[in-house]
Amino acid sequence: MNRGWIVITAAILLLIVALVSPKILAKTNSPEFCAKCHVMEEQYFTLMKGGLHNSLKCVDCHLPNDSKVNFYLWKGIDGTKDLVHFYSGSVPERIVISAHGKKTVQANCIRCHEGMVSMIATGDRHCWDCHRRATHKQRAFTETI
Fold first, then answer.
1. Could you report the average pLDDT of every consecutive run of 10 residues in the chain (145 residues)?
2. Domain coordinates in residue numbering, the chain
3. Is-contact 63 71, C-beta < 8 A?
């Protein structure tokens, strides 16, 4: 294959990735995408049907929102971990949030409700210690993977 064809092929692939990637990334940010894995159906329904935050997407709480780089880095890490668990059949019977996940959710609670919590010393307490209805299942936050 001559060099011209390689450049043309690379340019076409780059164009396809540039046009398709934003659509794929947007789709994978939706709660419906997260619920496609049957193990997440219960969490999806508790959020969408009865949750206080049912206008949010899963990524609004479960991924860092301090920078796009951090967001997409953890989206890749967590997404890969979830895919491996799902397709290897190693999904735990009861899904629990990791220690890193707890820190991320806590930071996002404070980020969104900053005005309300600015005078509260959170210290070693988590928002869901008092606001149990804001979670999918309170029990899921009490353990770590």
1. 73 69 80 78 75 80 91 86 84 82 90 80 76 60 44
2. 30-141
3. yes
Cα 43–chain centre separation: 12
**pLDDT given for residue 20 in this prediction:** 65
**pLDDT in the model for residue 51:** 62
Cα–chain center distance at 49:
19
Nearest CA among 86, 93, 72 for reference residue 34? 86
Contact 60, 108 (CB under 8 A): yes
Both tokens assigned to 95: 């899904």
At 102 the three-state DSSP class reads helix
The closest alpha carbon to 117, from 136, 97, 138, 134, belongs to 134
Q: How many C-beta neighbours within 10 Å does residue 70 have?
A: 13
Three-class SS state of 107: helix
Which fold, 30-141? Multiheme cytochrome fold (1.10.3820)
